[in-house]
Structure formats: C-alpha cells, structure tokens
Write a structure and sequence with these properties.
Blueprint (H helix, E strand, L loop, with lengths): L11 E10 L2 E9 L5 H11 L5 H20 L4 E2 L4 E7 L16 E7 L1 H6 L5 E7 L4 E7 L4 E2 L2 E2 L4 E7 L11 E6 L15 E3 L6 E2 L3 E5 L7 E13 L2 E10 L4 E3 L1
Parallel strand pairs: 1-6, 9-17
Antiparallel strand pairs: 1-2, 3-4, 4-5, 7-8, 7-10, 10-14, 11-12, 11-15, 13-14, 15-16, 15-17
Helix pairs in contact: 1-2
C-alpha cells in the first residue's frame, strides 16, 4: 500500500444551486469533495499516539485491506472498523421478466454509514458558501443501461442528465457536454481541452433546460472523469456571446 497523502483544508466548501422542481423554485447545497488518503489517516493516528511507528500502521492497514477484500470476494458484507457496512449488490436491474441466474447483472459494491460516521460530520465547519445562479447545473445522472441513477456509466450506452439551465446551444465546437479525464480527487488538466471527450449539440437525443440525453462513445476509455456542461443558450432561440460552464461536483466513472 502506497503511503499517499493529500493536502487538506480544515473545513469544507459548499456551493448552493438554484433549481426548479415541479414548477417550484428551490435550492440545494453540495459539498466540494476533498479526498483523504491512507497517509492522511496515518498522520492523524500518529498525532493521537506519537509512539506508533508509521511503517507499522501502514503494514497493518495493508493486512486489513486484504482481509476486507477477501471477505467481499466471498460474498460477505463487511463492517469497516465500525464506520459503516460495505456490501455487494447487483449492478442494475434484470432486463424484462427473465428469472434466470444468468440474467442477474454483475455485482458491485454499496456502503451504508454507521451512526458514528453520520454524527462525525454533523458539525463540520463550512469555509465558503458560493451560490451558483446562472451556470448549467447537473443534479442527477441516469444510467440507461442499468436503469438507475448513478455516477458509474457504461461506454456505448445512453446517459440522461437532470438539472437546471442545461440546454445546449451556441458554437458547437465550444458547447456541449465534456468528459475530462481526472484523478481520484477529481483533478484534471483544465488547459487540455482538446483531449476531453466532447458530446456535441447535434448528437443529443434530448436537449432541454432540465434534461440532456446522449450516447457515450463506444470507444471511450474506462476511468474517472469530470463532467462539464458548456452552453451559450439564453432563452427561446437566443444565444449569448459568453459560454457558461457548469461542472458536475461528483466524479464520474466510465466502466
């Protein structure tokens, strides 16, 4: 196991998004996620017990990881250090009325946090409250293949985005939905625009202010991505001069 660390803040940033649900104005808040790695966990453990050796903690963590994976591989749900339960589940629905075991989708992993974990985050300090009013905002992603709302998508299959101010219009080369390859923390090369996977306006199945539907390229590489919506749409058939960008706050995984 690599002794990987990440530079972390002492508080979280919150963005507030305005939306319309069933004709009513509403707002919702999202946390800008920061990822702490095993090195950060060990740093905190040593702060609490300076007598512990870093190498010992790292070796123990590797043993625990291997034990957890072995139990998951045997089909067991696992209590992760009393922080929550990791469990296996089918990745989507069975097509049609088929009741054969061969029709059951491949397994994936779910997680249910414990009361200890939930209570630990209740009083987290908020560092910033940034309200996004006039940018595209994706609130949910629907994987058509698995028929479920998920941030895990399948290359070659349809995807539906739900949110507000999503309608794509304007310069087709600058507007559309973009997938930028990123690391586990969501960091990506913002200047590597040419390397982004680009879904253009002409490729959309549905293109409204609250819904976008399109097909992912069959040859899209598996991995983690940031999803960016870019549009110049204003209202009616009008487009503004400025391209407005909205970045989905979760990391998207292409399977």
């Amino acid at each position: 196991m690599q002794d990987k660390t990440n530079k972390l803040q002492d508080s979280v940033n919150i963005t507030i998004h305005h939306s319309v649900i069933s004709g009513k104005q509403c707002s919702f808040a999202r946390v800008q996620r920061e990822t702490a790695y095993i090195g950060n966990i060990i740093d905190k453990a040593i702060e609490m017990n300076p007598m512990m050796k870093r190498e010992t903690l790292l070796f123990s963590a590797e043993l625990l990881k291997n034990g957890i994976l072995a139990l998951l591989s045997s089909g067991k749900a696992v209590d992760i250090l009393e922080l929550g339960t990791m469990y296996i589940k089918p990745n989507g629905c069975i097509d049609g009325a088929e009741d054969s075991l061969n029709a059951v989708p491949e397994m994936t992993v779910g997680f249910t946090p414990s009361d200890i974990s939930v209570n630990a985050v209740k009083n987290v300090a908020i560092a910033a409250n940034v309200t996004k009013k006039n940018v595209p905002s994706v609130t949910e992603i629907f994987n058509v293949k698995t028929r479920s709302f998920s941030d895990s998508l399948n290359a070659g299959y349809s995807v539906k985005l739900q949110g507000s101010k999503l309608k794509i219009a304007g310069d087709e080369e600058k507007c559309g939905v973009f997938f930028a390859s990123c690391d586990e923390s969501g960091n990506y090369e913002k200047n590597a625009f040419e390397s982004f996977v680009h879904i253009k306006e002409s490729e959309f199945i549905t293109n409204t202010t609250t819904n976008l539907e399109f097909n992912l390229p069959e040859n899209m590489e598996k991995g983690t991505y940031r999803l960016i919506v870019a549009t110049s749409y204003h209202s009616g058939k009008l487009c503004g001069k400025q391209v407005r960008l909205g970045e989905y706050e979760n990391i998207v995984t292409i399977c």
